[in-house]
Amino acid sequence: MRPQSLYPFPYKPFSELPESVKHVLVVEMSCGQMVEDVELGVSRKVPVSFYGRCGGMAPSVEEIEQAAKKALG
């Protein structure tokens, strides 16, 4: 899911995630400012992990895949 806007934060789509969602990985080019909003959006029903970078360097697909595998165990 990629929010079009962060203000106001789109809580509704996060609250309507299907039961099959077991974990959410927040990927940001920041220090994690969106993690708490995502946790609130999913009503803390599933774990939320963070993978981010500062400095303008976007993470690669492989790095995101590794972060997702680590989050899922």
Keywords summarizing the entry:
about 70 residues; alpha+beta; two-stranded parallel ribbon; 3 helices; about 15% strand; globular
Overall description:
This protein has 73 residues and is of the alpha+beta class. The protein is built from three helices and two strands, in the order H-E-H-E-H.
* Unreliable segments of 5+ consecutive residues: none
Mean pLDDT: 89
Taken in chain order, the helices and strands follow as HEHEH
Taking Cα atoms only, what radius of gyration do you get, to the nearest Å? 12 Å
Helix-strand makeup class = alpha+beta
Number of continuous helical runs: 3
Overall shape:
globular
Q: How many individual β-strands? A: 2
**Proportion of helical residues:** 25-40%
Q: Termini separation (Å)?
A: 22 Å
Briefly summarize what is shown.
By secondary structure, the protein is an alpha+beta fold.
Topology readout:
Layout: H1 11-15, E1 24-28, H2 35-41, E2 48-52, H3 61-72
Parallel strand pairs: 1-2
